Amino acid sequence: MLPIAAFPPDAAKRLRGVCFDVDDTVTRHGQLEPAAYAALAELRAAGLTLVAVTGRPLGFAEIIARTWCVDAAVGENGAGYIAREGQALRFGYWDAEAVRAEQRRKLEQIRMRVRRELPDVREADDVWARRCDLAFDVGERVCLERPVVDALVRLIESEGAHASVSSVHAHAQLGDHDKARGVVRALEELWGLDATCAQQAFLFVGDSGNDAAAFAWFDWTAGVANVVRHLDRLPRPPRFVARAECGLGFAEIAQQILSARRSTP
């Protein structure tokens, strides 16, 4: 990984947008950091499209889309998106309703098996707002040891579901989506941007294991400093890394991009 100060100015000038994780990327201990939110406002004022992409529930993504200075929010690791269209909201899901209903039945089986076989594992306290996946708390209210998290991942995968681990949650999801695919679909359906444009003209910023697909797919990627604690879950690390952690690291990345875009050739 290179320091974010090494981000090429010409690449910064060609960017059309920034996609970013939420937990421990723009937040710290679950709270949105003021410096990160100010950076979002500056990025948007500079004409960049902003897409939040999170493992948090689609119910939370709806609040982000309604109230933050973003253009869209992708939730549940790519399962769907919400975007403002004037005073209205537009919703998109990766899978049709009939498919999601069957997925909910399967996720309930996983939930019950975890309760039987891993009684120390608790569901995330935001499950009430989830529409497409199931999440377990591994680092938000409790801090599970790595062997317990690995056992949870094996159980989820043994049921034919996809497992991903962030700094706060372990997710069980069904459907052929991830953060990268979810963003690409949102950009195409909302603004007609193709996958090549998304890959080459958007910067992805994240911090942990459930960002792996995005770190591997986007041409331009950056991590806040705390990403170093999750490199073993990232087959491909971000190309650039901030010196600061969490929201302060995001602000550092944003300022580097903005400074490069303001510079003369």
Task: Give a brief description.
The chain has helices at about 10-15, 35-45, 60-65, 95-115, 145-160, 180-190, 195-200, 210-215, 245-260; strands at about 1-5, 15-20, 25-30, 30, 50-55, 70-75, 80-85, 90-95, 135, 160-165, 170-175, 200-205, 220-225, 240. With about 260 residues, it is of the alpha/beta class.
Entry keywords:
265 residues, alpha/beta, Rossmann fold, Hypothetical Protein Ta0175, Chain: A, domain 2, 2 domains, 9-stranded mixed β-sheet, 3-stranded antiparallel β-sheet, 9 helices, 40% helix, globular
Describe the structure.
It is built from nine helices and 14 strands. The radius of gyration is 18 Å and the shape is globular. The longest helix has 21 residues, at 97-117. Helix 2 runs parallel beside helix 9. The protein has helices at residues 9-14, 34-45, 58-67, 97-117, 146-158, 179-191, 195-201, 212-217, 246-262, and strands at 2-3, 17-20, 27-28, 31-32, 49-53, 72-75, 80-85, 88-93, 133-137, 162-165, 169-173, 202-206, 220-223, 240-241. The chain has a nine-stranded mixed sheet with strand order 1-14-13-12-2-5-6-7-8, sandwiched between helices. Strands 9-11-10 form a three-stranded antiparallel sheet, with helices on one face. Strands 3-4 form a two-stranded antiparallel sheet. It has two domains: 2-94 and 177-262, Rossmann fold (3-Layer(aba) Sandwich), CATH 3.40.50; 97-173, Hypothetical Protein Ta0175, Chain: A, domain 2 (Alpha-Beta Complex). The protein is of the alpha/beta class and 265 residues long.
